[in-house]
Amino acid sequence: MGFENVRSRAISKQEGEVMEHWKNARWPYVAFVILEVVIFGFGSAVTKFAYESITPMWCLAVRFGLAALVFAVFFGRRMVGQLHTAKVRAWLPAALGMAVSYLFCNVALDLTTATNVGFLLALPIMFTPILSLLAYRTRYPRALIPFQVAVIVGLCLLCSQGGSLTFGLGEAFALVASIGLAAALVFGKQALAQLDAITVAGTQIFVSFALCLGCALAFEPALDVAAVQPVAWGVIAFLALLSTCLTFLLQTLALGRLSSTTVSLLLTGEPVLTALFAFLLLGETLSGAGLMGAAIIVATIVAATCVDGREDNSELSTAPALAVESQAPVAAPAEPHGAPSFSVPSAAPVASVLKPPTPVRFRS
């Protein structure tokens, strides 16, 4: 009988260790961002088909309007309940950042080449740690600098294609879009302290819809629904359901476990996927320099993610030792900082785990 009890306890301990391993695993959240990048890359290529019969701002307005309708139908009551008790400043900065990013990106595509826009939109990796430093007074992650340099080199090779980068009004708009995305990543961590991932994504979608609709009404002619081709409606449906609803949710979930800097690093793979889908769907080709740049970006993303993962594991492994040395009483094993639950019925469980300001994971 005693042997059976010992065996049962050993099995329970082993099962607990397995569950703890999966709870602390980073790879599902990395996979979320990679899936997001694939969807974004495909969406960037097919958006050109929609622009043949609908203007950019109206395309955005209809896209975010459809996405907002989906979120209102499925999550409206849940979002209202959480927003009723949350402070506006907790979620509005991230939502505005995302809205500005999408709006200025699409305007930039009308004013300059997609190559220049693609290069500038991949720069949140430069702005994210700076914004985190200014907003939360975190130390600048000096360990990230080599990866930043490598990404910039790769993007130059990928996007320049042997030509020279110019800087005009379109480039300025793309730069603002990049800063907006960085702000959405940094302040999205703050929003997760009071709201769950679905509500944070929903606020970004609704604010984006309001801003894009207002700009479409103010700066573009009235939408001629009859003139919009079926292909354009199909593209808009894809952009609304997958490239908006799904990707916003994936990114918000990833921010609950990964640092905003790591997410911005992973997002730099978007120009690579855009170039791939542009080749497959639009017949665009990459030069030898472009292929080399793509390879550098992919290698940098993999290396930086592995380094960030080792930082997380070292923090988790040293936490119990520190508790023993300090002789602090521990009532129950605490979840590691930044590990969200896939089931987020209310804001309280998330608030107990995610507390801003959250410093980036890279250590100097």
Explain what the structure shows.
With 364 residues, this protein is mainly alpha-helical. It has one domain. Helices cover 76% and strands 0% of the residues. It is built from 14 helices and no strands. Helix 5 runs antiparallel to helix 7 and helix 5 runs parallel beside helix 8. The longest helix has 39 residues. The N and C termini lie far apart (54 Å).
Quick structural overview:
Helices cover 76% and strands 0% of the residues. The protein has 364 residues and is mainly alpha-helical.
Task: Give keywords.
364 residues; disordered C terminus; single chain; 14 helices; mainly alpha
Distance between the termini: 54 Å
Count the beta strands.
0
Global mean pLDDT: 75
Judged by helices, strands and strand pairing, the structural class is mainly alpha
Radius of gyration, in angstroms, nearest whole number:
22 Å
Low-confidence stretches: 315-364
SSE arrangement, N to C: HHHHHHHHHHHHHH
Number of domains: 1
Helix content: over 70%
Coarse morphology: globular
Approximately how much beta-strand content do the residues carry?
A: under 5%
Number of DSSP helical runs: 14
Oligomer: single chain
Largest sheet: none
